[in-house]
Every structure is written in C-alpha cells, then in structure tokens.
Amino acid sequence: MTNELTVRVARRLQEAEDICSFELVPHEGDVLPAFSAGAHIDVHVAPGLIRQYSLSNDPSERHRYRIAVLREPASRGGSAGMHDRVQAGDVLCVSAPRNHFPLAAAPRSLLLAGGIGVTPILAMARALHAQGSPFEMHYCGRSATRMAFLDEIRSSGFSGRVALHADDVPAQKLDAKRVLAEPREDTHLYVCGPAGFMDHVLETARGQAWPEAQLHREYFAGNPTALATDGSFEVRIASTGLSCQVPAGQTVIEVLAAHGVEVPSSCEAGVCGTCLTRVLEGTPDHRDAFLTDAERAANDQFTPCCSRAISPILLLDL
Q1: Which of 45, 114, 150, 316 lies 20 to 30 angstroms, CA to CA, from 204?
Q2: Nearest to 167, CA basis, from 203, 196, 136
Q3: Would you call 188 helix, strand, or coil by DSSP?
Q4: What is the DSSP-derived secondary structure letter of residue 124?
Q5: What is the pTM of this model?
Q6: How far is CA 18 from CA 72, 74, 138, 148, 183, in A?
Q7: Closest Cα to residue 246, out of 297, 272, 282, 290?
Q8: In this predicted structure, what is the pLDDT of residue 1?
C-alpha cells in the first residue's frame, strides 16, 4: 500500500446498533495528511485483508481521522474484524486519504445518505457549513437506533439543514420524488449508502431529468460476481506480449499474479478503483461499482479485481 501511515486507535465508540466508530490519531508526530470531504482511507484489518472506510470528521482536522464501520451479516472478514479485534490503544496501518467522491464546485449541494453512507456525507456537510455554502441533507435509516451520529448532527451548527428519515416512522420516510422534484442548474446531488437506496435515488433523479453530470455517488459494496459459471477469455499485456487465459472461477488479477504481473488492488470488489487498468483493445464486462455509466460505455478501462470480458481478448496497458 502506497503512502502508508501508522495510526493509533485513540477511541472506539458504539454509535448505533451494529455501528462502531474508530478515532485514529498519529502514532508518531502531531498531524496526519490533509483530506477533503468524501475521502476514504485503506485500513489493514488483518494480514492480507484491506478495507476502505470513509472519513466522517471535519476535513479541517489534522490531528485525527474518524471512520465508522457497520458490522455486515455476510462479512468476509473486514467489518467483523474491525468489530471483533480492533480496540482502543491498538496500532493500525492505513493509507493516506484518497478521494473518488469529491465535492464539485457548485453553488448548492443536495446530500442524501442511507445508513452507514452517512460517513462521507457528514464530512461534506461539515465542509459546506464551514464554507458557508448552501446545502440540504437527508439522512435515511431503518430506525433511529441504527443511525449513527444523530446526537452530533442534532447539536451541529447545520442541524436546521438536515432532515432525518427513519423507515419505522411512516411520517418520516423519504419521498425521493418530492425531494428531487425540481432539478436546478446550480445544484449537485451526492448520494451514498446501500446499493438499493442509491439506485432508487439515482433512478428517481434521472426520471426527474437531473443531468448526469450533476449526480455523484459512492458505493460501499460491489455487485456479486458468479465467477464459477463464467466463460474464459484471454488477456494480453501490451508492453510485454504476455498472454494469459482467464478461466471460470478466477479473476484477472489472480491470473496475472500467477504469471508474475502484480496489479495494485485493495477492495477486490470493484469499489475503490485501486486496480483500475487501461484497456487498449477488446470489450470489458464491467462488474464494478466504481466507474460511472459514461466511463463504462467508453470501455477504455476496467477493474480486473472483479470485471471480465465480453470479447474473446482484452489487450491491457500494463
């Protein structure tokens, strides 16, 4: 992992049902690398296990990073590892912040968070409030008991700009059509949360004629891939001429690694973009949650950790 940092867990808090926050401070020195709203860090949860978590604290802070982790029922070791093993006082290895979900330069912002998706959205709200920029935030969850940072939001200087939507209170449920009813040229929409929530918001926005350039999203999980039932295809490396067959049941990254070609990777689910690779020829079968629809349509890059090929051959710029 590049730009590797060593941090200490200064505090661990139970923020809501199945959600813990972890406050990370420098293990040595006084400050951490700066970050912008929407940024995330890679966390070494265990040897060989790296996960991405968004930063939820004020981007002006240099003395700490704060992440929040939802325990996933079908955890592959990431969220369960954070909940079961990481305690206050522990030392962790993390990356410097990276931002694939930045705020655009826009007169007005509309922020929609679902569940644990509040983490980057909360940092955005803090940044916009500090800048004096107009925004509106909607925070949705199954119930108030499963919504992190409620007390913090209610006591913030921007609480009047936040609407809370708990699904178990019918009067509070989000009416996406109403919230997105009037697209404006000066407003950008940001959405983060479970895939179903995000798809609903984005589909509603598109149905209300929101321009695609004004829609910004960040998924926390990729799409399930049925590798075992896929066909095989060939990948070729333009720089060396190496040719490899990718069989059913294996990813491009796994096959390339077996031939001595290491592609930097992190999430292994098509979420973070670490492994993004340029495609010179051929048509990828995109299975990531990182690229936009326009980027997928261009077919000039793909995520080899989870995506495959529609064409018989992919020529890669490696």
Answers
A1: 150
A2: 196
A3: strand
A4: H
A5: 0.80
A6: 8, 13, 21, 10, 35
A7: 282
A8: 42
Amino acid symbol at 163: A
Q: 64's torsion region: left (phi>0), alpha (psi -120 to 50) or beta?
A: beta
Per DSSP bridges, beta strands 313-316 and 233-237 are parallel
Whether the CA torsion 20, 92, 3, 65 is positive or negative: it is: positive
Structure-block tokens of residue 170: 């019918």
Residues with Cβ within 8 Å of 97's Cβ and at least 6 positions away in sequence, in order, are 33, 34, 35, 36, 39, 40, 41, 55, 65
Residue 26 has pLDDT above 90, yes or no: yes
- Quote the tokens at residue 250: 């294996």
pLDDT tens-digit series, residues 260-300: 999 988 777 787 788 999 999 999 999 987 888 888 899 99
Residues present in the chain in total: 318
| Contact partners, residue 304, CB within 8 Å, separation at least 6 | 251, 252, 253, 256, 263, 265, 275, 277, 316
- What's the pLDDT at 221? 62
Task: Give tens-digit pLDDT for 109-152.
Answer: 999 999 999 999 999 999 999 999 999 999 999 999 999 999 99
Q: Return the biggest CA–CA distance within the chain.
A: 62
